[in-house]
Design a protein that fits this description.
The protein is mainly β and 232 residues long. It has a single domain, classed as Nucleic acid-binding proteins (OB fold (Dihydrolipoamide Acetyltransferase, E2P)). Strands 1, 2, 3, 4, 5, 6, 7, 8, 9, 10 and 11 form an eleven-stranded mixed β-sheet that branches. Strand 8 and strand 9 form a beta hairpin. The longest helix has 9 residues.
């Protein structure tokens, strides 16, 4: 008797399709230099919330990204205290969340691979440099930098003159990540360079906001805002 073949999961097949040479050289990375305002630790992971104040003209805008640590990095993150200034580097990843039985949603996160004290790093550099006045101020300044290289999968114009973009990237050439990004038409040099199916090397920053959903629950959003496109 012929065995029945199991049904093919087309969604899973699509997500794990063969990764072609177009994705060679892909990467994601971020650098956050700021103050730890919250810290959550358990046996498997650590999460810190950072305050990143950045001067924009006459006003200061502060974003509050969450950085997650796993494996050996959990112990490193646990060492630092709230209100301490640190520099964190890492990568962007995404996972699929299922908030209810019928809906899957992409959720991107910042995963830390290195964390170090800004005051200690500043001291070590200043000991090697002669002109210290301006350098010390520069080293302690807050930083919010996100960078990605991949391929534009989709782009559509929304309300308020913004374009929502999905970038596929595979830094390890094994698993694909789909990163969501925003670009604004006020930045014509960025807005006009977006081409579906074409490679993109984008730099920008993480902008955070809190908003209520239809059920009244407060959701923390972390948007990747593209500020420039690099030529490779």
């Amino acid at each position: 008797m012929k065995k029945e073949q199991p049904a093919v999961n087309n969604e899973k097949k699509k997500r794990f399709r063969q990764i072609g040479p177009d994705h060679e050289g892909d990467f994601t990375k971020f650098v956050f230099n700021g103050t730890i305002v919250k810290k959550y630790i358990n046996n498997k992971s650590a999460t810190i919330v950072m305050a990143l104040p950045v001067k924009e003209g006459r006003r200061t805008v502060t974003d509050y990204p969450r950085v997650h640590f796993y494996g050996a990095q959990v112990k490193e993150a646990a060492y630092f205290k709230e209100l301490e200034q640190v520099e964190v580097t890492g990568v962007m990843q995404n996972t699929r969340l299922k908030p209810d039985e019928n809906i899957f949603r992409q959720h991107q996160t910042y995963v830390g691979t290195k964390i170090e004290s800004v005051s200690l790093k500043t001291k070590e550099i200043l000991e090697r440099e002669e002109d210290c006045d301006d350098l010390e101020m520069e080293l302690s300044r807050s930083e919010n930098l996100v960078e990605i290289r991949g391929i534009v999968e989709s782009a559509y114009k929304g309300n308020g003159g913004q374009m929502r973009i999905t970038i596929s990237t595979s830094p390890d050439m094994k698993r694909m990540a789909y990163i969501q990004a925003l670009a604004y038409n006020s930045q014509a040099d960025v807005y006009n360079e977006i081409r579906i199916g074409h490679p993109i090397h984008a730099k920008g920053y993480c902008a955070t906001r809190n908003a209520q959903n239809r059920e009244g629950k407060v959701i923390h959003y972390e948007d990747f805002i593209i500020s420039s496109i690099e030529e490779d």
